[in-house]
TrEMBL record:
InterPro entries: F-box_dom (IPR001810), F-box_Sdz-33 (IPR012885), Zygotic_Embryogenesis-Asso (IPR053222). Residues 3-50 form the F-box domain. This is F-box domain-containing protein. It comes from Caenorhabditis elegans. It comes from the Eukaryota.
Length: 307
């Protein structure tokens, strides 16, 4: 990210130059002064999406065009101990070119970039591992208040209790429209905390396999999920699918529009779709059994169409 003064040009000419700057240079130009920041904001530059990856460092990718294969801006915030306070952590910004900016926080940079690019963009947060040497509260505060389009959580030790990921999942799920996670950071005998996450409204929820301790807890979790789109990768028996569908059509979740369920490896019998499901018009369901995948939808005549 380069910071440099623009020659004293007429506004029309300077705008011409600024519009042809790479986004990373424009963000740097806006850091010079309030005047340059206002000038950059008036350009109404579009920003398509922002990806935040949290692993051993905090990485921010900004995409000016969704068709690009390489992000327009990439910065990394390295975590290190403060020289005078070993218990304190400092973040150092490092650009793609290898330049460093000390004492410039991730949220400070993100807010600055979002202000320069007035276009509402998609923010995605991905937690990849549990190696970051930083207090969880500091990470939570860093992205507090942001509207997160999607939150993805994936850690290496899938079966170990992980307080850091418990905190991240609980906190960021409240700000997210879509949540998916891999592995269970909670104790297997403590399904209550997972159900607390599910019963808050999240537009789309993707549940991994082996998240719940037993099938009864799994079914309860699906029934209380307050979502519009719901994916479940754990295997379910026909009886539990029947129970779920019956509760669904009787109004257990009036928001739910689409559900993807996975059956265990057995022959799927269409008798599970009895007449009581005739109320499910304009509703989609998606069922898997081994290599068999069936998509179905009720038409306006209340008849079942298998696809």
């Amino acid at each position: 990210m380069h910071v440099f003064p623009l020659p004293n040009l007429p506004e029309k000419s300077s705008n011409y130059v600024l519009r042809r700057m790479p986004l990373t240079q424009l963000i740097g130009f806006a850091l010079i002064s309030k005047r340059t920041k206002d000038q950059a904001e008036r350009l109404n530059v579009k920003m398509k999406s922002v990806d935040v990856w949290i692993d051993e460092a905090i990485k921010i990718f900004i995409w000016a065009d969704s068709d690009e294969r390489i992000p327009s801006v990439f910065v990394k915030f390295l975590v290190s101990q403060a020289p005078n306070d070993p218990g304190k952590r400092e973040f150092t910004l490092r650009t793609r070119e290898g330049k460093t900016w000390p004492k410039f926080g991730a949220r400070q940079f993100l807010d600055h970039a979002l202000e320069v690019c007035n276009e509402v963009c998609i923010i995605r947060i991905t937690l990849l591992c549990d190696k970051i040497d930083c207090d969880g509260n500091k990470i939570c505060d860093m992205f507090d208040g942001l509207t997160i389009e999607s939150l993805s959580v994936c850690f290496e030790h899938l079966q170990l209790v992980n307080p850091f990921f418990q905190q991240m999942l609980t906190k960021f799920s409240r700000q997210s429209k879509m949540v998916s996670w891999m592995g269970n950071p909670f104790p297997h005998d403590d399904s209550h905390r997972i159900q607390i996450i599910l019963c808050q409204f999240i537009h789309s929820v993707h549940l991994p396999a082996k998240l719940f301790s037993n099938v009864r807890v799994l079914l309860d979790g699906l029934l209380i999920a307050d979502a519009v789109l719901l994916w479940n990768m754990d295997k379910m028996c026909l009886k539990d699918v029947n129970i779920f569908l019956k509760h669904w059509i009787h109004g257990s979740n009036t928001k739910l529009e689409s559900a993807s369920l996975r059956l265990d490896a057995q022959v799927m019998e269409m008798r599970m779709f009895s007449k009581c499901y005739s109320k499910m018009w304009n509703t989609r369901w998606h069922l898997r059994s081994g290599n068999l995948c069936i998509l179905g939808q009720m038409d306006q005549k209340n008849t079942l169409e298998a696809k």
